[in-house]
Amino acid sequence: MPATKTKNNQKSVLEYKRENGYLKIDEKEKKSISEFCSAYSLFLGEAKTEREFHDEAVKLLEGKGFRNAEILKKENAKLKAGDKVYYSAYGKTLIAFIIGKKPLTEGFNIVGAHIDSPRIDIKQNPLYENSEMAYLDTHYYGGIKKYQWLTIPLALHGVVVKKNGSKVNIKIGEESSDPVLCLTDLLPHLAQDQMKKSLAEGVEGENLDILIGSEPLKDKDKKEKVKARILKILSEKYKISEEDFLSAELEIVPAAKPRDLGLDRSMILGYGHDDRVCAYTGLKAALDLKEIPQYSSCLILADKEEIGSYGATGMGSNFFENVCAETLNFCSQSYSELDLKRALANSWMLSADVNSLFDPLFPSVSEKKNTAFLNYGICVTKYTGSRGKSASSDANAEFMAQIRRIFDSNKVIWQTGELGKVDQGGGGTIAHYMARYGMQVIDCGVGLLSMHAPMEVAGKLDIYMAYKAYLAFLKDARK
Q1: What are phi and psi of 459, to 5 degrees?
Q2: How many CA atoms does the CB half-sphere of 435 hold within 13 Å?
Q3: Would you put residue 107 in left (φ > 0), alpha (ψ -120 to 50) or beta?
Q4: In whole angstroms, what is the distance from residue 406 CA to residue 394 CA?
Q5: Which of helix, strand or coil describes residue 170?
Q6: What is 330-372 written as a DSSP string?
Q7: What span, in angstroms and rounded, lies between the C-alpha atoms of 173 and 315?
Q8: Which residues are paired to 357 by β-bridges?
Q9: Which residues pair with 211 in a beta bridge?
Q10: For a surface tag, which of 40, 232, 340, 472 has the fewest beta carbons within 10 Å of its beta carbon?
Q11: What is residue 377's three-state secondary structure?
């Protein structure tokens, strides 16, 4: 981050001042920002679930020479500097490595993001009829403000797995010719009691049921004729029955595509910036790493962060540790647990997750000197947690100094920021799951407005600087 300049155009080493990143760039870099963000916006509109992001990422990785670890195992392959490999956990978490010149025991340079986002999930036995209208029963996923999801166009994404193991992919509501779904709300004329409740109480979780049909099937033998018609449509189009919902993962997401925001087109309004904005920029950095790195590079695209990183595809599992062990085994004649522990302890990591931005319409929740601002660059967060730094992974000053060196020497525009005032709130990331190995970890990602809303706001300059930051870290850390 460039230092402040005096009237004599000499760099001041005494004062620190932040400013809007657009004041620091030329027209050439502004064009690069626009081009990069156009590609990101298209990707964000196509990959609205963790499964979709995973599958799109695999295509891009394989196009750049990354090989599936399962195939390499069958070939008894060995990896050398410059080789690329990826591992998948159940089609929802992805970890990729570029083998560096130094022994793996000297550690990895890791960029780790998550690819799940707050949403509404369909229950296992969801379909019912009430008053000749058909609904899907739901259970919301992650921290949402439930009222924000009412009356907006919604899409259905996911997979249905039949008893024979065959999979049926579902995506309804994204094409202009598709129908959409929605959650209904009371009209103001009848909402006097509802509007006396708090925002948190105004909409109950069990009432987040998706309206999906109203036309009855012309069959006098059917009792629930609207439900019967919906089942007929599902059977004809997807060859699935009501029982197949039992082994399905179906998600409700906003149907809207990402759009440029503002008359100056300086922002993107879209669903799932948290945390696909960091996942995409990290992925692009790994794909664009042209030179063989000194230290092996690692990209993590994880599931389940929004609900605590639990489960086999979350960072609370042993998946990352296991694939590091596999990678060590690919690169040596023998495997040692001591080598694994050394590799993990010697690693450096950017926990690539979003932060909040200062919102002048809600200034009371932020401490202005220590919050991030829109288009001031990627946000580095030394510690997360809440209140007394509870559940925080607090990076040490030595590592923070290294991050300053890497970003400044690579002309990355960056800033620091906390997630709200000390006693106001807070949040967590996957950082502490990695710090337990003794590695150096710091949170570093794009700031957002309206985080966890159906449509979030990200600044284009911040998005591009995240890409530059992750690329610099993967290729330049520890030089």
Answers
A1: -85, 140
A2: 20
A3: left
A4: 19
A5: strand
A6: HTSSS--HHHHHHHHHT-EEEE---EEB--TTSGGGS-GGGSB
A7: 31
A8: 372
A9: 135, 182
A10: 232
A11: coil
First to last CA, the chain: 18
d(CA 250, CA 246): 11
Give tens-digit pLDDT for 346-370.
999 999 999 999 999 999 999 999 9
Give burial (CB, 10 Å; 0-12/13-18/19+) of 329: middle
Structure letter (DSSP) for residue 149: G
H or E stretch at 464: helix 460-476
Largest CA distance in the chain: 89
CA distance 407 to 1: 7
Both tokens assigned to 450? 């309206």
Stretch (H or E) spanning 30: helix 27-46
Beta strand spans in 131-265 (E): 133-141, 154-161, 167-172, 210-213, 248-254, 259-261
Collapsed DSSP state (helix, strand, coil) of residue 401 = helix
- Amino acid letter, residue 161: V
Task: Give dist(CA 352, CA 111) in Å, integer.
Answer: 6
Are the C-beta atoms of 337 and 392 separated by less than 8 Å? no
pTM: 0.94
Contact present, 383 and 394 (Cβ < 8 Å): yes
Bridge partners (DSSP) of residue 253 are 155
**Which runs of consecutive H residues, i.e. helices, occur in 250-298?**
273-287
Place of tokens 């999979």: 167
Tokens 């990200």, located at residue? 458
Q: Which residues contact 341 (CB under 8 A, 6 or more apart)?
A: 437
Tokens of 195: 């509007």
For 64, residues 6+ apart whose C-beta sits below 8 A from its C-beta are: 84, 287
What is the torsional sign of CA 31, 443, 97, 81? Answer: positive
For residue 174, the model assigns a pLDDT of 97
State the Cα–Cα distance between residues 174 and 176, nearest whole angstrom: 7
Domains, the chain, with CATH or none: 21-117+271-476 (3.40.630.10), 119-254 (2.30.250.10)
> What is the reported pLDDT for 330?
95
Paired tokens of 77: 């392959």
What pLDDT is recorded for position 12? 58
CB of 275 within 8 A of CB of 47? no
Task: Say which range, 3-17, 185-199, 374-388, has the weakest mean pLDDT.
Answer: 3-17
**Is residue 285 within 8 Å of residue 32, measured between CB atoms?**
no
The answer on pLDDT for 9 being more than 70 is no
Query: What is d(CA 127, CA 371) in angstroms, rounded to the nearest whole number?
Result: 45
Q: Which residues does residue 130 pair with via DSSP β-bridges, in sequence order?
A: 133
